[in-house]
Amino acid sequence: MNIYVGNLSPDVTEEVLREAFVSFGEAASARVIKDKYTGQSRGFGFVEMATQSQAQTAIKSLNGKELMGKEISISEARPRRDEGRTGGGRMDYSGSRNRY
Questions:
Q1: Torsional class of 84: left (φ above 0), alpha (ψ -120 to 50), beta (otherwise)
Q2: What value, to the nearest 5°, has the Cα angle with vertex 24 and ends 18 and 26?
Q3: What's the rounded Cα separation, in Å, for the pair 18 and 27?
Q4: pLDDT score, position 69
Q5: Whether residue 99 has pLDDT greater than 60
Q6: Which is higher by pLDDT, 89 or 48?
Q7: Which distant-in-sequence residues (6+ apart) come within 8 Å of 72 by Cβ?
Q8: Could you tell me the CA-to-CA distances from 55 to 35, 75, 85 in Å, in that order?
Q9: Mean pLDDT of 50-54
Q10: Which long-range contacts (CB under 8 A, 24 or more apart) does 54-59 make?
């Protein structure tokens, strides 16, 4: 089960995040999401737990707890909505967008 972890300190690494969850079961992976331009943490991440019961226990136990000075928020990760990105049109001199 995939778990969303929000309000992460910029100092939290993937190893620190994984270690916070291992006492509840097998944390198969941990990812801290980073800005693609600066490489700095965006303040959230994901942890993949081996079983649903381990994940539920971790969510109940860690939600609202402090990790490296910040109170983290934890919930079951929702599937990503693929809305497609918009934009890429050209601007004409009047400021309105023209699609080519």
A1: left
A2: 60
A3: 6
A4: 96
A5: no
A6: 48
A7: 5, 6, 7, 8, 62, 63, 64, 65, 66
A8: 26, 9, 32
A9: 96
A10: 54/1, 54/24, 54/25, 54/26, 55/1, 55/3, 55/24, 55/25, 56/1, 57/24, 57/25, 58/3, 58/21, 58/24, 58/25, 59/3
